[in-house]
Design a protein that fits this description.
With 270 residues, this protein is an all-alpha fold. It has helices at 2-12, 14-34, 41-53, 56-61, 73-82, 85-107, 111-115, 121-154, 160-188, 191-211, 219-222, 226-231, 235-238, 242-265.
């Protein structure tokens, strides 16, 4: 029985996931291939002047630090991919799956049918989480491969190991918000509410991390943001931060545990 909910979730999502996987890989490949166009000296000069005119707050929103050049491999991939697009894609995917896992079943009036089988509520949540983890990880692999192939084609000087580290931490960040959506859906049975709250939390915590240092906000406030543990130590430049990865993993585990406990004790709408 453990296999049934998991495989059904995977089967139900297979067409959408084909689009997610192929689309994410293709989009990232195109982004990297476009980097070769910046080899034109005239364009480089124009871009440097443009970057100098940008306010630091705008650069911070796309993950760039003051003085970092968008023409460098790390700067380009940060501005165009890892600063916002990669975490956004994974966050949207994971949050949608998390909100749909329990609340979606209730809204579709299929939860009673699911629970009529000899399967515990805990098992339902765990299997839904496993499906979310696998599917988000697959999209993460597609993103990594799309960028890695592009890097190889254009000869971009960047560590593949660091690229993998940045992708892994983005996957865990997305799963954290997916687990939050799961917990909210398990508590309320309302998918729209879960997605709304997650969207608000994601936006607020993103701004805290991105513009907090420029606004001289206390460092402890930045550490309240999950995005801090994704971006603060710049895995694309410095490699994997095991401490940050541990925090992101802990967030996922804690929120999934909360979801299990809340769903086990709540009367389900049928």
């Amino acid at each position: 029985m453990l296999r049934n909910v998991f495989t059904k979730t995977m089967r139900d999502r297979r067409k959408a996931m084909l689009w997610w996987i192929s689309g994410s890989a293709a989009y990232m490949l195109v982004i990297v291939l476009t980097w070769s166009a910046f080899n034109d000296p005239g364009l480089q000069e124009s871009l440097n002047k443009l970057m100098e005119a940008y306010p630091p707050e705008m650069l911070a929103v796309v993950g760039m630090s003051p003085g970092q050049s968008m023409l460098s491999p790390v700067g380009y991939l940060t501005a165009e991919a890892f600063g916002w697009m990669v975490p956004l894609l994974l966050l949207i995917l994971a949050s949608g799956m998390g909100a749909r896992a329990i609340a979606g079943e209730e809204e579709a009036k299929t939860m009673d049918l699911l629970l009529s089988n000899p399967i515990s509520r805990t098992s339902v949540v765990v299997q839904k989480v496993l499906a979310m983890l696998v599917l988000v990880a697959l999209v993460g692999v597609a993103i990594f491969l799309g960028i890695a192939v592009g890097v190889s084609v254009v000869g971009m000087d960047i560590s593949v190991a660091y690229l993998g580290a940045a992708t892994l931490q983005a996957v865990m960040l997305g799963l954290g918000f997916g687990a939050l959506a799961l917990a909210l859906g398990a508590a309320t049975g309302n998918r729209g509410l879960a997605l709304g709250v997650v969207s608000a939390v994601a936006l607020a915590t993103f701004l805290v991390q991105s513009i907090g240092p420029l606004a001289d906000w206390p460092r402890w406030s930045q550490k309240l943001s999950p995005f801090y543990y994704y971006a603060a130590h710049r895995p694309l430049e410095n490699g994997l931060s095991w401490g940050d990865l541990g925090v992101l993993t802990t967030i996922v585990v804690v929120l999934v545990t909360v979801a299990v406990l809340l769903f086990a004790r709540r009367d389900v709408r049928v």
